[in-house]
Amino acid sequence: MKLDVIKLDGGKAGDIELSEELFGLEPRADILHRVVRWQRNNAQAGTHKVKTRSETSYSTKKIYRQKGTGGARHGDRNAPIFRKGGIYKGPTPRSHGHDLTKKFRKLGLRHALSAKAKAGELVVIENAEAEGKTAALAKQVANLGWKRALVIDGAAVNEGFARAAKNIEGLDILPSMGANVYDILKRDTLVLTKSAVEALEARLK
User: Fold this and answer.
1) CA dihedral 166, 169, 170, 172 (to 10 degrees)
2) What pLDDT, in 10s, does the model give residues 54-111?
3) Cβ 199 vs Cβ 176: under 8 Å
4) Phi, psi dihedrals of residue 107, rounded to the nearest 5°
5) Burial 174-191 (b: 16+ CB within 10 A, else e)
6) What is the pTM of this model?
7) Other beta carbons within 10 Å of 48
C-alpha cells in the first residue's frame, strides 16, 4: 500500500510503499487484547500486602477462659474474625506477569500497525528533527491537527525533537525498538518517520 510522506511543516515529500504484511492485515481484537493484557500485567507492581494473623500487633494472650463463658472458644485477638485482626488469605507481593511468545508479540505489533493504517490514523513523515524549541514544534503539531499523537523514530530519537516535544501535551516520541501495542493503540494518531518504517519492517518480518 502507498502512503504520502509529509514534512513537519505540512509540505509533501513524496510517497512510500508500505508492506502489506505489516500494514495491510485485517486487525483482530483478540490478538491485540492478549498483547495489551500481557503488557499491562508485566507493568503491574504487585506490591499489595495485608497483615496476617502472625503480623498484627494485639497480644497473643488467650482473651478468656476456654469453658464456662457461654461464648465461642477463642485464642487471641489476632484471629481474622475480630476487628483489626489478621486477614485470612489476603494479597501478598507477587508478579502479575505471564509469558507470551515472541512470535505472538510480533504478530500483535503487526495488527496494531494495521489497525492504525485501516482507521486512517497513520501518518508518515520524512524525519522528526527540530532545533529544540517547544513553541515552534507546538505550532507545527497544531497545524497538522495532531492532538494525541505517538511519534516513532528510527534507531535513535533526534535530541532536539525530543527536547522540543517534552512539554507538548499529548505528544510522545519513541525509538523504533520501543514501539509497542499499548502505546500505539492509546494514541489517536500514529506518526512514523521513514527510518522508523524501515526499522519496523526489518524487525517484524
Assistant:
1) 0
2) 999 999 999 999 999 999 999 999 999 999 999 999 999 999 999 999 999 999 999 9
3) yes
4) -60, -40
5) bbbeebbbbbbbebebbb
6) 0.83
7) 11
